[in-house]
Amino acid sequence: MTKPKLLPWMAAAGLAWVAGFIYNVYLGGEAHWLKSMYEKKVAIAATIDEPKLLVTGGSGAHYTLDSALLEDELGLPVVNLGIDGPVGLNVILPSVLEQVNPGDTVLLIPEYLVLHHENGLGERSGAFSIATGRPGVGDIPAKQLTQDLLLLGVPSLRGVIKSARDLVNEGKLTGYYDDPLTANGDPTVDKARVGDWWQLAIKTPATDHAIDRIAQFQAEVEAKGGTLVLALPWVYADSSNETQDNILKTVDALDDIAPLVYDADTLNVQSDVSLFADTHYHLTAEGRTVRSRQLAAELKPILLP
To answer: How far is the C-alpha of 58 from the C-alpha of 53, rounded, in Å?
Structure first.
């Protein structure tokens, strides 16, 4: 009896998917670098037994802090637990909640990309949850989770070509989030912008889902004996009436949940592009210093009354 002709093709496809999954999650895919960065940050937080400040959000938190400066100014340990905006609030927040201990303060800095998600999920929600071994986190719909799982076994052609070049030119695989971290979880490299700058327009306020999910997070943090503080992100944006109106609507909604810190004159909208690195939220080393000094001054009345 002959084997079905389809069987060898199915076996080959299965092996190819496994190879792709290993590449994406354990070798050189962006899911790997995100997972690795998150695990390093979690390991840093786990070494601190005393009350601490845990700063989180997307890359608009990760790439905007000088946590050592904050630590000196506030007199308490600071850990940067910023992850990546496209992971989405539904997955970011429970990923951080696991690290909260009694007496901790969580500072959430959600960039507008995150606040505008209609369902709290982004294009990397499933990949991140699967890569970190928690596929059920964030209430990701089964259909989306299945699709994301299948895609993790299919490396992009661009990614494979980049990895091949990395191996030839540098002798190792690299990724966007592969920068070494400081002892506080901050990045150590300034990203270079590719392309011209333009000022971002904030076209809508935070979605109802984002506000509800942050309110839920506030209750979850308090249930663990922690305290939640919110901060508007720094953003290189225009100063149009539309942008200001939508930020103010977001401020009103967030301010009802927890203490919210920001510059009332600028609404944290920045006009000096020299302080920004590669995106409208990521800051240079100089920008991170200026931003962190502002944050320290805003947080002192709350944390050090």
So the answer is: 16
Please give the pLDDT value at position 3.
54
Q: Could you tell me what percent of the chain has a pLDDT over 70?
A: 98
Give me 9's structure tokens: 């093709």
The amino acid present at 158, given as its one-letter code, is R
67, 55 contact by CB (below 8 A): yes
Alpha-helical regions (H) of 4-85:
6-22, 30-46, 59-62, 67-74
Task: Specify the pTM.
Answer: 0.93
Structure tokens at 19: 């190879």
Alpha helices in 98-226 (DSSP H): 112-115, 125-131, 142-151, 157-169, 208-223
Which H or E run includes 255?
A: helix 241-255
What's phi and psi for 143, nearest 5 deg?
A: -65, -45
Contact 14, 60 (CB under 8 A): no
Do 147 and 141 touch, CB atoms closer than 8 A?
A: no
β-bridge pairing 53-57 and 78-80: parallel
Tally of residues, the chain: 305
The residue to which tokens 């922690």 are assigned: 226
